[in-house]
Amino acid sequence: MDSAQRHPHGQHTTEPAHQPPETGPPDHEPDTDLELLVHGVGGTTPEKMLGDPRTVRITGDDTAAVFRRAADAGPGRRPGPGPVREAYVWCNLTSGDGSRALWLLLLPFMVVNLAHWMRPAAAGRHRTVRLYGLLVRLVALTLTALLVAGACEVALDLVAWQCAGAERCARRHTWLGFLAPGVHGGWWSAPGRRLALAALIPTALTGLLWYLSHRTWSAYESHQPLTRDPEPADDSALSRPGFWYGRRLVARLRAAHTATGLLTVAAAVATPAIRFDHRPGGPPALDTLGRLLTAGLLLAAGTAVGVVCRRGRSERCPDRHLDAHLVRGLPLGALALLLLTLVYAGWSRPGWRSGGRLPGDPAFGALMSAQGVLVIALAVVALDLHRRRPDPRAGMRGLGGPAVALLACALGGVMSGGVAQRVADWLDGTRALLPGPPVLLTWQASTIPAVLVVLLLLAARLGLRAARLARAERARIRHEHPGEPEDPARTRAIAHARAMATLTDRAPLALAVLTATTLVLGAAALTGALATGTTPDGAAARADGVVRGLAGTSQAVGSWLIGAGFLLFVTWGRRAYKDASARRTIGILWDVGTFWPRAAHPFAPPCYAERAVPDLTWRMDTWTRRTGGRLVLSGHSQGSVLAAAAAWQLAPSVRGRVALLTYGCPLERLYGRWFPAHFGPPALAGLHRDVACWRNLYRPTDPIGGPVRVPDDTAPDVDHEPLRDPLAYGRTAAHPLPAPILGHSDYQADPAFTRERARLLARLRPDLPGQRPEPGPGE
Q1: Burial 579-618 (b: 16+ CB within 10 A, else e)
Q2: Are the C-beta atoms of 688 and 715 separated by less than 8 Å?
Q3: Cα–Cα distances in angstroms (integers) from residue 667 to residues 88, 420, 556, 754, in the given order
Q4: What three-state secondary structure class fits 696?
Q5: Cβ atoms 67, 18 nearer than 8 A
Q6: What's the rounded Cα separation, in Å, for the pair 95 and 606?
Q7: Between these two residues, 8 and 329, which has the higher pLDDT value?
Q8: How many Å apart are CA 388 and CA 394, to the nearest integer?
Q9: Distance (Å, whole) CA 575 – CA 587
Q10: Transmembrane stretches, by residue range (predicted)?
Q11: Angle CA(267)–CA(268)–CA(269) in degrees, nearest 5?
Q12: Is 338 helix (H, G, I), strand (E, B) or coil?
């Protein structure tokens, strides 16, 4: 942090990651109390978290670090009233310069990675769980092939094959002149050489994805977790020692997906050349080479699929070993095949002319059909898992994962189709010089207006429901403040905040509607693409003409919406990374997606928790061992999820000496419903049993946080009663000015926060006399 002062004695050093921390003499008095604060999605500064303009970095770096007030950082400091406070600042893991907004272009990869973690909980169904993970990994592999195929469609088909091969189009775009096959066509004017040159673009895209995956792994996810023995029975997979370190799997998937991308480019270049060589009277040598090349491409593709199918995550211990021969050999072998394909395609072939489209329709149709089959199989497996252990709170009754996987496929298809359509419009204009992109991609772009109409109708329905709920809340608010003069504007504001906060709980309905719409429109696009080539007569022809006219209008509108959406997407992403207020708007969705490790797609944006969770675990373990003091882990919003994940990673002996204080907490409301296998009721009940004590604060005006609903009747309730928001309805002696409606922010302003923290500290050390807590309202 720029505003934070550096520690005067340099960086704090810790033990090597592969060894457990040593227990040394205490740094402070044995009864030192510590509160470790973890902020939420919006990000903040250590000065705001600690309420002091002078802060010192205790340990960490410029990406994530632990800070204290300067007055609390000295070695001779003795505890005063309340615990010593430390702030773990991790916002630089998910924000930074505006170039990170380009990660938003990897949204389909992030979404399909989410589907891996959304499986229903099912104890003892190990084979079914592995099958679920395998199906998601295969869906992710098709997304890589789809993205690279879309780039091939733009570079190879639209630019090199169609536009450069048409004299009028090449004249309109002078930068394509050296590729034009005119009377004085140059060396590059041969169709195969044009394709070989254009193949550099999708090849560079594949290389860029490989580089980003490798670089972000080294920067974000390569931090070693705390070494400890696995527990005999895990209530949640998040307590396993290797959960936050999946180096081997990510490296294997990166090799397989990189090879798949390179092989997709090779197939796009080789297919037209092989078709030309297979014609009657073609050169026998090139025909034989084409057959051998086809066999090599099929063998390499089967190897890549086999690598994806072979192995999933290993979480019982950190997966530090790499399959070096596979990680290096598979992409290099695919690259060698691609180079051989480029040489083969660039060979001289007299009489070869480019015309029409490249054979892309069958490829995109096969990809779309494969994705549909895989998603249906995934839904069957998810239903079987959910039936074994039904959870009424689970989103979409266990079908959340398949629904999200389908949306990832739809995003990939719409992005590929929309970009191809926009590039075709830019190259061709209104002159109808080019055949354009494959029919299926055009039909996919035409579904965008229909999806937007459905979303607008859904938003209107949810808005009406929120308005009705707000009217009901106004009567309830008037009864909550008897004897106070009513302020209609104040009542409406509070009621509106409560009503809008409930929209989060309607997310399953929104996802179900969006999934059903995607499924229907995807089937319609595939049917329309297959039926486009028919030529009916008479009345049928007139009806068909009307349908084609509507489809053409939708395609044009969808194409422009894709272009506008792309610009809006990047602009909004840049603003979200730089502006805290914009980040709070979309930050929760993005941070949920990048919280999870890359288990299905290696090109997804990096997982910040693979750095943040080990940071918190190491800090808590070393501090409790060295001081023997009491520690309250205090997490807000997404910070409460990181706090829970870090508490799970502690050894049982340390976990039992830590209290957990969460506020604005989405553990059950979002994570428990959508990720039941990892944050479901059994997992939260296990965490409640393992930590020394746990208290959760929430407000009815909070759209993100809520109760955790731990199903444990043998211990004190985790959830505090809903906090009052605002703290005062009208002007009072304590609040002479109108109290703000805080919603999801500033929980520490409520007196209940200090009171509950003191109670947690007292419960951590019941054998010592604690400060008597102040009586709360009604006590």
Answers
A1: eeebbbeebbebbbbbbbbbbbbbbbbbbbbbbbbbbbbb
A2: yes
A3: 19, 41, 43, 22
A4: strand
A5: no
A6: 12
A7: 329
A8: 13
A9: 11
A10: 101-119, 131-151, 195-212, 255-276, 288-309, 330-347, 367-386, 398-420, 440-464, 509-531, 551-573
A11: 90
A12: helix
The pLDDT tens digits of the residues spanning 353-399 come to 887 888 877 888 899 999 999 999 999 999 999 988 888 888 888 89
Tokens of 508: 């399953």
Pairing of strands 630-636, 33-38: parallel
Statement: residue 350 has pLDDT above 70? yes
CA distance 213 to 261: 14
The pair of three-digit structure tokens given for residue 354, joined into one six-digit string: 């480019």
- Predicted confidence (pLDDT) per residue in 219-253, tens digit: 666 677 777 766 655 567 888 888 888 888 888 99
More confident call, 319 vs 190? 190
Residue 657: pLDDT above 50?
yes
**Angle at 405 (CA atoms; ends 400, 409), nearest 5 degrees:** 145
Burial bucket for residue 475 (CB in 10 Å: 0-12, 13-18, 19+): exposed
- For residue 296, what pLDDT is reported? 95
Task: Convert the pLDDT of each residue in 294-310 to its tens digit.
Answer: 999 999 999 999 999 98
Token pair in block for residue 647: 């508490």
Buried b / exposed e over 693-716, threshold 16 CB at 10 Å, is bbbbbbbbbbbbbbbbbbebeeee
Cα distances (Å, whole numbers) of residue 184 to 161, 181, 190, 313, 355: 18, 7, 12, 58, 19
Task: Provide the pLDDT for residue 190.
Answer: 86
Residues ≥6 apart with Cβ < 8 Å to 399 = 379, 382, 383, 386
Measured CA to CA, the distance from residue 391 to residue 398 in angstroms comes to: 8
> What distance in Å separates the CA atoms of residue 121 and residue 128, rounded to the nearest whole number?
11
CATH topology of domain 33-94+608-764: Rossmann fold (3.40.50)
Q: Which of 677, 650, 662, 676 is nearest to 718 (CA)?
A: 662
3-state secondary structure of 634: strand
- If you search the block for the tokens 């209609």, which residue do you land on? 488
Distance CA 639, CA 83 (A): 19
Predicted pLDDT at 702: 94
Instruction: Quote the pTM value.
Output: 0.87
- What does the pLDDT average to over 495-512? 93
CB 619 within 8 A of CB 88: yes
Region of residue 397 (left: phi > 0; alpha: psi -120 to 50; beta: else): left
- SS3 of 210-243: the string is HHHHHHHHHHHHCCCCCCCCCCCCCCCHHHCCCC
- pLDDT given at position 716: 66
Residues for the chain: how many in total?
A: 779
Stretch 326-337: mean pLDDT = 90
| Ramachandran angles phi, psi of 694, nearest 5° | -150, 135
Q: Nearest CA to 699 among 646, 733, 745? A: 745
Is omega for the bond preceding 449 within 30 degrees of 0, making it cis? no
Burial of 407 (0-12, 13-18, 19+ CB in 10 A): buried
CB 667 within 8 Å of CB 388: no
Pick the most confident of 100-114, 133-147, 298-312, 720-734.
133-147
Q: In 3-state terms, what secondary structure has residue 569? A: helix
Residues of the chain with CATH 3.40.50: 33-94+608-764
The answer to whether 680 touches 121, Cβ cutoff 8 Å, is yes
Cα(341)–Cα(192) distance, rounded to whole angstroms?
10
Pairwise CA distance, residues 260 & 305, whole Å: 9
Q: What is the pLDDT of residue 232?
A: 59
